[in-house]
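Input sequence (318 aa), recorded before submission:
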Amino acid sequence: METCIKMNETHLISDLCVKIVDTVENGNDKNKTYFACDICGQKFCQKRLLKKHLSTHTKEKIYSCNVCGKGFSQRGSVARHYRIHTGEKPFSCNICHKDFTQKNSLNVHLRAHTNGKPYSCVVCGKEFSLKSNLTVHLRNHTNEKPFSCDVCNKGFFKKSNLNEHFRTHTNEKPFSCDVCNKGFSKKSNLNDHFRTHTNEKPFTCDVCGKRFSRRGSLTTHYRFHTDEKPFSCAVCGKEFSQKGGLKLHYRIHTNEKPYSCDVCNKDFSHTSHLNVHYRTHTKEKPYSCDICGKRFSRRGSLTIHYRLHTDESPYLMM
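Predicted structure, token format:
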């Protein structure tokens, strides 16, 4: 038989048809009546449970927070949300005693202690402690970029990456150094910068022992040992260990010269070339020979000069 439950009090769900079914879930419940959802088929032993379940399909939000007015489809969700206003954190980690507003958040946190990674990638096997991290990771395989910049249309795997990118258009720098007040668009860049003040170098090369303040610098350095050159020019095929090196090289093909001297307006493809050129105007000679004291505007000129003292031919064929 079939009946219709009309949820008049919400004015949103009306005339949703549900079936009352006689089911044999086990031998003892042969004549027990269940209420089945007409949308997904899930069964409930009470009408009120079905009524509660139906709101997950309709997205109606019949419960609201009396502090901020935010709506929820379930009463329990309101109770959990309310803790944001009260600051209540009833769930505590028995290892580090960190407190949480939700039990689920505590369960996720516990994996940091147990190194539990219940979610694994079906493509490469990499494991994750959070399902959301696996979802983002899978986009590396599918190349799906669901978040795009509405200014330049560049796509991103994660919304947080889009938010960071968008600051390149707005020039927003919400993170500032409390030592020198320099501003940064990304918190990670602030963390890297802060090590210039502390001289902290937490990343160490396991081949030569050289230390670095940034993980990216270590990764780039490591390629000197492996001779890895993952970046190649699409025009001539020349390979580079750093993306920045490829970008600079590419200007040879495009003849792009984005750096201009503000004295004579001569253009340069590299900022370092502009800096060297600028010394022809300022007469600055920052490099000096530690034997005779002669000064030079370019390091290369000092290197050539130094060979005069060592009896080495100053112009070696390399």
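Checked by second reader. DSSP finds ten helices and 22 strands in the chain.
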